[in-house]
Amino acid sequence: MYEEAVELAKRRGFFWPSFSIYGGFAGFYDYGPLGVLLKDNIVRVWKEEYLNDGAIFLDSPNVTPEPVFRASGHLARFSDLAAECEHCKNKFKLETVLEFNKIKYIPATLQDAEELAGQSNLKCPVCGSIIKKVYDFNLMYRVTGDYYLRPETAQGIFVNFKLLANYNRGKLPMIVGQQGKGFRNEISPRQSLIRLREFNQCETEVFLDPENLEFRELYDFKKIIMRPNTGEELYISVKEAYEKGIISSQAFAYFVLKTQIILEKIGISNERLRFRQHDPDERAHYAADSWDAEGLIDNEWFEIVGIANRTDFDLKNHEGSSGEQMRININGRDVMPYVIEPSYGIDRILLTLISQTMDKRDGKNLLRLPYYMAPYHVAVFPLMKKDSLKERAEELYSGLKNIDKYVLYDEAGTIGKRYARQDEIGTPYCITVDYQTLEDNTVTLRNRDTADQERIKIDDLLKGDYIKSLIENKLKL
Ligand code: GAP
């Protein structure tokens, strides 16, 4: 459904390529009117779920001075191996060239890559010439002088650790979340929202006492595909994975489980979600262990959330570079916390959500978003624009707006077309004012998923909690 999802997203106003009047620039996308609302709903689920576990939040700058990234290792090590065809001048991620040449081996260092390029005839995926030039390409955008755009929101949290710990009265565990933009000069942006140069992250840094890598109790939830880096594939619950030693610490397992639950709440299908552990040479420079939550779109798995054990890597480096103590006192012990980081890529989650919930009924598109995730909850239509139906529908629309802001009004086209428009953007309920309304003050209420209709009294609809109960699935139609 990827192609259909991207087409629908552009046509109906979820997202589209940025700057298109100037020909478009790879790696940048705009969210349109519906995309903004859907993105907000994803962020809301993330925020509320972490608030449940006592998270606090931060909002720090995108533009970051060089010393931060010198300390964090991003200046020296946040790079991709790249290749350039000297004939057609195209630049690629080395992985793309290796894939094109059907080479399975991925070099870990520039030296290995140079050896490989020297020994193999690596063909350019565009013009077929032999590629000889391989190099390390730092992914950070330098803005001016000694400033960079942040490639992850995380560093803002690490450099503020002392202030945040004071705010939190020195208690561990401490969870700090940050929602914001990340920027990476990706060599080859691709597949709309999958690899962007400017993207949206919701990251949480969980600071733990290294002598107590435990968080709240793990509980049994649905089984899920788990792929540890030993090569096996298991279908077990996260709790079982921890008990069998597949996930190393209780706290790490807790945040894998939490990620599974959050993604399910957002509407990602558990059957099309898996957790995959990184191979040691695949990990980011700061990570001692990493698991990705991957979502399935058509037949391809994409990383949507990265969960890393960052140990005390960042705090130690910032302490060393800044001279500021990054420790707290716990019962007389001087503790530099360990960090577990679940990092959610909001763009990829949104794309996966649209792709996975897109469906067809009688040849027409239907977006089966969870009701509370839909950009709009209800659409109100007059059956016709005459005989005071329009006025009654407008009156109902304003009444509903006082209860729920996410209400649309539509009077254009046939009623069938209006239903189809709402089905396609995932609106769970449509209300139609018709001739019977004029007689008995009732309307039809139609459900997106079943297309079933019921007559409901307007007075009931306007009772405070009626729409809310429908959207939260407490009332069925
Ligand atoms: N702070 C850790 C970190 O940034 P990451 O695995 O590089 O980890 C986390 O990124 C998430 O951010 C990914 O799982 C992905 O969803 C999203 N992401 C990363 N790079 C992206 C890009 N170029 N375009 C879109 N999303 C991206």
CATH level-1 class of the largest domain: Alpha Beta
Shape: globular
Structural class: alpha+beta
Give the total of beta strands. 26
| Beta-strand share of residues | 25-35%
The end-to-end distance, rounded to whole angstroms, is 28 Å
Low-confidence stretches: none
Helix content: 25-40%
The CATH homologous superfamily of the largest domain is called Bira Bifunctional Protein, Domain 2
Tally of structural domains: 3
Q: Ions, cofactors, ligands: which are bound?
A: glycyl-adenosine-5'-phosphate
Second CATH tier, the architecture of the largest domain: 2-Layer Sandwich
Helix count from the secondary structure assignment:
17
Look at the structure and give the mean pLDDT: 96
What profile does the largest beta sheet have? 9 strands, mixed
Strand order of the largest sheet: 3-10-11-19-16-15-14-12-13
How is the CATH topology of the largest domain named?
Answer: BirA Bifunctional Protein, domain 2
Give a short synopsis of this structure.
With 477 residues, the chain is an alpha+beta fold. Strands 3-10-11-19-16-15-14-12-13 form a 9-stranded mixed sheet. A 5-stranded mixed sheet has the order 23-22-24-25-26, with helices on both faces.
Description:
By secondary structure, the protein is α+β, with helices and mostly antiparallel strands. The protein has three domains: 295 residues, BirA Bifunctional Protein, domain 2, CATH 3.30.930; 58 residues, no CATH class; 96 residues, Rossmann fold (3-Layer(aba) Sandwich). The protein is 33% helix and 28% strand. It contains 17 helices and 26 strands. The strands form seven sheets. Strands 3-10-11-19-16-15-14-12-13 form a nine-stranded mixed β-sheet. Strands 23-22-24-25-26 form a five-stranded mixed β-sheet, sandwiched between helices. Strands 4-9-8 form a three-stranded antiparallel β-sheet. A hairpin with a 6-residue loop joins strand 5 and strand 6. Helix 1 packs across helix 12, helix 2 packs antiparallel against helix 10 and helix 3 crosses helix 11. The two termini are 28 Å apart. It binds glycyl-adenosine-5'-phosphate. Glycyl-adenosine-5'-phosphate binds next to strand 11, strand 16, strand 19 and helix 12.
